[in-house]
Predict the structure.
Amino acid sequence: MLRLSKQIIEIVKYYELLFHLAIRELKIRYKYPFLGFLWMLFVPLCMVFIFKVVFSVIIKISVPPYPFFVFLITAVFPWNYLAMSLSQATTSLVDSSNLIKKVYFPREIVPLSILLGNLFSFLLTMGLILILLPLIRIEITPLVLFLPFVIILQTLFMTGLVLMSSSLQVLYRDVKYIVEIILLLWFYLTPVFYPLSLVEGISTKFLRIYMLNPLACLITVYRLILLPGFNSTLPEGITVSYLVNYTVLTCVCLFMLGLLVFRRYDRRISDFV
Amino acid sequence: MNIIELENIGKKYILQYEKGAFIKDVLPRLFIPKEKREFWALRNINLALEKGESLGLIGRNGAGKSTFLNILAGISSPTEGKVEVRGKVSTLLTLGAGFHPELTGIDNIYLNGVILGLKIGEIKNRIKEIIEFSELKDFIKQPLYTYSSGMILRLGFSIAVHIDFDILLMDEILSVGDIPFQEKCLKKIGAFKETAKTLIIASQSLDLIKALCHRALLLEKGRGILLDEPEKVISRYLELVQKETVQKTKESQYPYYPKYPDDIEKIKTGWETRIGTGEARILEVKLRDKKGKERNAFQTGESLRIDVKYKVEKEIKGPHFGVAVFREDYLYCYGPNTRFDGIKIKKLRKGIGNFSIEFKNIILGSGDYRLSIAVWNKDENNPYDYRYAYYKFKIFGDGKEEKSLLDIPCSLSINGKRLRKSASAFLKKIIKESVAEDLVGIEKPRISGRWGKEKKAFNPNENLRILLRIKILRIINAPFVRISLHNEDGILIQESCFDTGKDITPPDARLSLYYPGMPLLRGKYSLSIGIGSKKNPEGYQYMLSLANVEFQTNRKDHGIVYIPHRWRLKNP
């Protein structure tokens, strides 16, 4: 525990570097496009629009009592945040070998800066969603005050993930491909595109196993916060307190596990990148 | 308390056949014993450095210098042993870590500064200085991809030297920018040394290490071989790396070649050629030190022996042997031969023979040199074999920036008190030409022999004393004195620089500079003298061509300098 806190303190000491690297990422990404940073808002806006057209005009489906595209946008952006960060951060240590081999700083900074950059655009997107929801007549409840906490939890969760995947990638270059496969599988095992009732329809036993997936809980928590009355649509046996407790527990555990794994391989990173 | 303590440091790498690949990495692991797959880049390194003490790392490529620096920097961690570093470490291992081509110079300063451990506020305070030092001017607002590689390095260096640190680690980075910028960097680094920062420098530039470091560590195959004064370590290193470069057997046609190749154009056309009628042929040329070890790099003041083996194809009468030393810039330094030295050789019979010439004290300044070897006919108009500037060797001096041809000892006394010769290489550049201030007035010196009897013409290796009176109006704290000798072509022959360390007081100071032997052959030389101090590093006054000295001799030896030597012949 002492070592763990030392590790965290060392990372925090270099917060300026962390921010600067994240800003560098963003600056480089948006420097040349004509619209620049506006793309950060424009892309999610377009996505919402496309979902709206596809799922309310062309394929008319809904997840009662919500239109399908509303159901979708409350989950797809948190998922994208995770998927993009994880796949970008996995190779980050290997990619910045010229930095790692030349200067000392806590190596955790490298994958975390990728995460931070993505967090920034995710926050913008969530802000956009919060503006859009009233426009499409979805009421925003005081529950939304919990949104920052959920985002922090998700970020902790992802911190653990990227620390593990990026440090392992240094030693085993196969990790990148495994991560891609896991992400695909995970996507289908997470209720982004379908409601939980669909899983319940298979069997209640399966639902219980299914809900061990921390992301399933996390995504559901997002919907609980953003969609009023969503708790009434939860399948039987899945309570709000279970969802919240399980999410908190897994996020914190994975965060610590990530730090541990990273520390274990830290000494070898500069020799192998 | 020691600022750096290393105890039994070792760094092991596991050799991988191909990183992470199954067939090429995992399978060999099963069959190749562990010990063979291990590689110790460093082992059993012990070191304790005090604050302000500087260390030079010397060794061939792959000796472990960079690994050593990486461990000190915290970039990689040692496999065994204890590292204790007390103080803030800054690294100049590569310039511009984290630079991004798409960002502007200013953005990159911030980014690189943060990477090197500065806070944003600190960078803001220094950014002006950094930009000014880099001399990038308006380019600083342009993205980095518009920069030349020299500009990028300059920017990187400027950031790195504007960071507060206790320990600075440097790895072969002083090839930054053009020569004026390099000098600026050297000066900056020299200034760090004076503010009691600890420098650790890995470099192939032995002169630099000699000038900057208090101690040096010689690494070879990851082991620390010798930790001692730089001079001792360097000569051990030179012994270690002798071999190669000297020999080159390029067979060329025998073009006509003039007899006295003094003119630079002729030297250039002859460079690296071989001519001769072929009755005798040079087979092998070896350069050896005092102990008879083969080497091609020497320190000023060491002994240098040239051993030549030749073959006589046909009996020849009245031949003689000659050697010549050139500097890499085609300067003909010295060319003695057996005829000038009065050695008569009646004839050489068919067979193999040897001759050697030994310079007990090679007084040349640091630089790259070339050697010609020749076997001449009786009248010295047709060589049997003449290898022109064919063999290379190096001389390491005391780390002066400006290359003077000679590097000979001299002593300075002020008002009758003798001083030690300063080793500071940075003072030299500091006194600028053409600066004059009323505070100091350098009077025309009196040039004399050892006992002060005024003299205008000297013989080679005669004692030379220069007596100076300097008028001063105010106390000057610890002035430094620079005295240089140029020949008529403007070539710098000898330069001596002293950090007096003592104050001089009005109304005047008497300086006496004594060379116990000025090894020049013939010609007129001009003497320039400058005075500066730490407070006024630009110099109070620098007087060009203040006096003239003439050298005369009956010797016929070619070249500029005279180096005492001894021939040894073994004729067939």
The CA atoms of residues 92 and 170 of chain B lie 5 Å apart.
